[in-house]
Design a protein that fits this description.
The protein has 2 domains: 34 residues; 108 residues, minor pseudopilin epsh fold (3-Layer(bab) Sandwich), CATH 3.55.40. It is built from 3 helices and 9 strands, in the order H-H-H-E-E-E-E-E-E-E-E-E. The termini are far apart. Strand 7 and strand 8 form a beta hairpin. Helix content is 33%, strand content 27%. The longest helix is centred in the first third of the chain and has 24 residues. The radius of gyration is 29 Å and the shape is elongated. With 154 residues, the protein is an alpha+beta fold. The strands form 2 sheets. A 5-stranded antiparallel β-sheet has the order 5-4-7-8-9, with helices on one face. This is Prepilin-type N-terminal cleavage/methylation domain-containing protein. Keywords: Membrane, Transmembrane, Transmembrane helix. InterPro entries: N_methyl_site (IPR012902).
Length: 154
């Protein structure tokens, strides 16, 4: 069977058809990626909670290893480890719209964290404490810390 010149031309797609299909595919893929970025809402409490957790573990470890009392102090703008330089910074400034509240062991009410200190003893025990991070727009998150490990309790 012999293919003529006319049959060979009719068997493929034109350049215009290929460009049109590729354009539609790129549009669909672009819309797909854009729709996933809508679901990428960042949690405003994640970074402060992570930093406080890291600071508590660091303070507890330093207190045990150096046989001295360590503290995390809370003030109007944030919180930080006193008496040692921590990798990543010894102080964390909370966002302006965020309030930090503290409930001590045996306490019944939440208090402003400003002026409070959290003590880590050289025996490897810290004061059990609960911290509430809250904003008007995103609600609040409560963090409870284990007295022996200084880690977050679920």
């Amino acid at each position: 069977m012999k293919i003529t010149h006319r049959d060979a031309l009719a068997s493929g797609f034109t350049l215009l058809e290929l460009v049109a299909v590729m354009s539609i595919m790129m549009l669909v893929i672009g819309l797909g990626f854009a729709s996933f970025s809508i679901f990428d809402d960042s949690d405003p409490f994640e970074k402060p909670a992570e930093r406080l957790s890291l600071m508590s573990k660091f303070a507890l470890n330093v207190a045990v290893l150096q046989h001295r009392t360590m503290t995390i102090a809370f003030d109007k703008k944030g919180f930080g480890v006193r008496g040692a330089d921590m990798p990543g910074g010894s102080y964390f400034t909370v966002p302006e719209n965020m309030k930090v509240m503290v409930m001590r062991w045996g306490g019944k009410d939440w208090e402003k964290a400003e002026g409070h200190t959290w003590i880590f003893g050289e025996q490897g025990i810290c004061e059990p404490i609960r911290v509430r991070l809250q904003t008007n727009s995103a609600g609040s998150r409560e963090l409870a810390f284990h007295p022996l490990t200084g880690a977050l309790v679920d």
